[in-house]
């Protein structure tokens, strides 16, 4: 059946039709964009270096960087073996020399300030080449960090390993943490940006902004290091290995005697110390330092008040009723009980 443009206009509203055309155009543009990016990514990583478990893909002219990366990864594998053995499956590493290549692999995380990603279940690590990174960031630290993610997937059940703990272990074991993380958590505490426990994992999955994403990393590192200090390194790793057969809540309770909520509350209460130390070390403004001191003074006053109340309750329980009215003394012979107490003292 032949349909003229005029008939089509009478049967299909204008704006919905425009939406269909726009959607088709967008899909076509997206298809060609992905195709071009895939072609670019195929040419960007033109060579492969193999050593042990690792297969490193890199661009032409970057063999020296690939060999350095292989050395870092092999050394890290040996260092982590006693805690996180690598097994026999290969680990593929892609060094991206263009942002287009990195964004293809990073997908939704490509728009965030990340220097590397790991698809742990596939044994895949993708990192930006040093030329794409901010100068202050440690390329070797990123390789170690992403390798820990792969090893955690091979030694625990990722389905029950909280994202915040996964990232915290990767930063701690991979030694990819920096002093600014402590300062960042201190600022989060002072300005009321601490992420509630129930929302912390979502800050990694669907962050609203790059700021929230960075906050989630800093908070995860702080919580992980606090937990290690709180229960001891041996107990901490027993809890991690228990995630093969238990949920996180069960493993934490069984191995450390803590619920997730109790642990989070303890960590949060400890943050005033972090804020105070970071303010003294980093030279925060006077206003910020005074804010910390006010918090410290409040907690000391509150603790002292609670101690006084407890002491009063104990004294009342021991002495009974010592306040008597005149009529209560009628028909009572001395000596009175308060005099007896004075003599005994």
Overview of this protein structure:
This protein has 345 residues and is of the alpha/beta class. The chain has two domains: 43-155, 3-Layer(aba) Sandwich (Glutaredoxin); 160-293, no CATH class. The protein has helices spanning 5-11, 14-44, 63-80, 99-106, 139-155, 163-173, 179-190, 197-205, 210-231, 233-241, 248-256, 260-269, 271-282, 286-319, 337-344; strands at 47-51, 54-58, 91-96, 116-119, 124-128. The protein has a five-stranded mixed sheet with strand order 1-2-3-5-4. A hairpin with a 4-residue loop joins β4 (116-119) and β5 (124-128). The chain is globular and about 80 Å long.
Q: What does the average pLDDT come to?
A: 78
Number of discrete domains? 2
| SS-derived structural category | alpha/beta
Neighbour order of strands in the largest sheet:
1-2-3-5-4
**Low-pLDDT residue intervals, each spanning 5 or more residues:** 1-24, 38-43, 321-325, 336-345
What's the Cα radius of gyration? 31 Å
Number of helices: 15
Q: Please trace the helix and strand order, writing H or E for each element.
A: HHEEHEHEEHHHHHHHHHHH
> What does the overall shape look like?
globular
Sheet-strand content, in percent, reads: 5-15%
Strand count: 5
Distance between the first and last residues' Cα = 114 Å
Estimate the helix proportion, in percent. 55-70%
Largest sheet: 5 strands, mixed
């Amino acid at each position: 059946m032949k349909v003229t443009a005029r008939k089509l206009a009478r049967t299909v509203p204008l704006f919905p039709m425009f939406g269909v055309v726009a959607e088709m155009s967008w899909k076509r543009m997206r298809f060609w964009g992905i195709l071009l990016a895939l072609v670019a990514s195929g040419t960007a990583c033109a060579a492969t270096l193999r050593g042990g478990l690792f297969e490193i893909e890199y661009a032409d002219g970057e063999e020296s960087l690939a060999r350095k990366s292989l050395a870092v990864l092999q050394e890290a594998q040996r260092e982590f073996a006693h805690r996180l053995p690598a097994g026999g499956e290969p680990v593929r590493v892609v060094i991206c020399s263009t942002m287009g290549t990195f964004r293809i692999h990073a997908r939704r995380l490509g728009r965030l300030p990340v220097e590397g990603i790991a698809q742990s279940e596939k044994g895949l690590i993708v990192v930006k080449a040093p030329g794409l990174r901010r100068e202050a960031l440690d390329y070797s630290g990123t390789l170690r960090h992403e390798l820990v993610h792969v090893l955690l997937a091979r030694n625990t059940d990722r389905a029950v390993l909280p994202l915040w703990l996964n990232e915290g272990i990767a930063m701690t074991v991979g030694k990819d943490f920096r002093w600014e993380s402590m300062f960042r958590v201190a600022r989060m505490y002072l300005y009321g940006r601490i992420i509630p426990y129930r929302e912390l994992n979502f800050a990694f999955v669907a962050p609203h902004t790059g700021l929230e994403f960075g906050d989630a990393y800093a908070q995860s590192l702080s919580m992980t290091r606090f937990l290690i200090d709180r229960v001891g390194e041996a107990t901490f790793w027993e809890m991690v290995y228990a995630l093969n057969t238990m949920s996180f809540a069960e493993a934490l309770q069984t191995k450390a005697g803590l619920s997730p909520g109790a642990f989070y509350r303890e960590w949060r209460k400890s943050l005033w110390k972090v804020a105070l130390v970071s303010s003294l070390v980093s030279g925060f403004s006077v206003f910020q330092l005074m804010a910390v001191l006010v918090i410290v003074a409040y907690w000391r006053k509150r603790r002292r008040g609670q101690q006084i109340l407890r002491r009063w309750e104990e004294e009342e329980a021991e002495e009974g009723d010592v306040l008597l009215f005149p009529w209560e003394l009628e028909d009572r012979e001395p000596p009175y009980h308060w005099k007896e107490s004075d003599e005994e003292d």
